[in-house]
User: What shape does this take?
Amino acid sequence: MKSLANLCEQAAAALAIILPSSFYLARKWMYEFFLKLHFILAFITAFAILIHLLPVSLEKSVFPIATLSLWGFSTIIRLTRVIYYNSGGKKSPLIGQASIKHYFNGQSVSAMKIVVRPQRPLEIRPGQYVYLFLSDMGTRRRLQAHPYVISWWDDSMRATELCFLIQPQNGISSELIARNSLRKVIIDGPYGKDHHLEDYETVILVAKGIGIAGILPYIRHMTYRRASKDKENEVYRRGLITRKIDVYWVMENNCEEEWISKWISELQTRDSEKVGGHVCKHLSY
Assistant: This one.
């Protein structure tokens, strides 16, 4: 009975710690620590409940058993994907796996474009993101996973380059300001949900500042689908009913236009049917 009581105390203590550590300020100040602590405490809670219920009734143990089983299965699947997509494939001894381009607003860096070359091609959908492990940023950073939205990719069916547009913040992004490349990047993903904007005839997209990085993948996806003439990609084109895309982008500085100027030019070149409508840019101070 004493051991069962101890298990209950451990589960209650774990839940008690999870609650305050989940508050917004705690997550903002120590996100990486919160993420790992939350995982460990949740596992302790589920495991303690299972050990507590097993001697009492097997029927009552079904839910913690199912929870731990699904958790273990999803972890195995995720690790398998990470190992597969980050091993083998093509390797270049001359360049790093990621390159970094900086955009300046006066003396400060306003944004960075990170281009990552996966070791195996990926099929990307708009609205997706990946976790990046930056292995040559030191031992502490090597164990941290950072989520970034995929803003652009080179091929709709088999992407070999992923582009991320980010603004420097506190933490890992501020350390990337001093770098032009990364030797090794481990990719976990992609994850996220495609909202299937191609199901609408008219699409209006609104963004401010760095928010353009989140809506640009949808513009690219619909334009590429409309412009694709390859018979092998007939399934890729099928189902697109969009006839017009209007984009309203509120820029906070003139320099922001440079972030996506190359990508916008490429879209305009591909969009022979003028599906994209126009991009309305407004400067706000």
